[in-house]
Amino acid sequence: MDFIMYKLILVGVVFGVTLFVAAYSTYAERKVAAFLQDRIGPDRAGPFGILQPLADGLKFIYKEEIIPVVSNRFLFVLGPCIAMMTAMMAGVLIPWGDTLVFGDNVYSLQIADLNVGILYVFGVVSIGVYGIMIGGWASNNKFSLLGAIRASAQMISYEIAMGLSIIALVLVTGTLSLGEISAQQTGGVGGEWHFWNVVYQPLGFLIFIICAFAECNRTPFDLPECETELIGGYHTEYSSMKLGFYLFAEYINMFVSAAVISTLYFGGYNFPFMNDLGLDHNIISIIGVLVLISKVCFFIFFFMWIRWTIPRFRYDQLMNLGWKVLIPLSIFNIFITGLVILIKNNNWTW
Description:
This is NADH-quinone oxidoreductase subunit H. This protein is mainly α. Helix content is 66%, strand content 2%.
């Protein structure tokens, strides 16, 4: 019973933190954009505008809900529900910290640690495209349909390169478990940063983060929502909280992507010299949680920085980058990684 209660509490905390970070990512997006464009940004709702996400949420809740007469009503409602649900599901496998020890009881700061965790994440991401496709098609709007087709083709194309980049990482780590991958980057006694996977897989990390931008429909890969061509993309016909679900799911995906990148390549909750501090294990675990959150915040800022720095690609450029550049690079990375492992394991010399 204690185990079940602990897991329920952990689920509630992760759920709340995810919603909080996603909500205030909208505020940070505006502030970062304002800073880069020499503006002030939101400053009316509360001190420094910190209540702006609450104002936006209330606006979505109280706005009139409009469902087009010519739409497929059931699928029109189902689309944003799928998008939001799949965005929330991926966070259950993130190891947010080491363990907490109370007496004889050891509690993991990970909701679930599957031995095929990476496959689970990819499976959930693959389902997310259905929410976009269903919403765009059910709207019975040509701009929504074009946006949905673009999003589907883009996500499917970049999932291939992302999956191939992960294969090289699996060759290095020998596991699909996010918990084990994070634990391997502790680096022995000291927890040195040079044990992080980004040191061993710099090309794989570069490919993965580029694909993460495309999977989250973030600039310069925001062709599915290209306002200058498609009005609003696949959610053109949506209003009220259904539109809020689509927009919110995008920021949740960005948060989860940042957490996955931090876990796979940047040590997760590990930080340099963590085991040399001489502190209590529980205190080290709590510091590790804060360290992981700080890494996630950095990558969220990086997503926003790129958005307000680089213009979007043309669609043909986007597809050429995915199929003609990233996929060959991913295959090359797998080959080089396998060759290095083979030489190392067999003690070969040139």
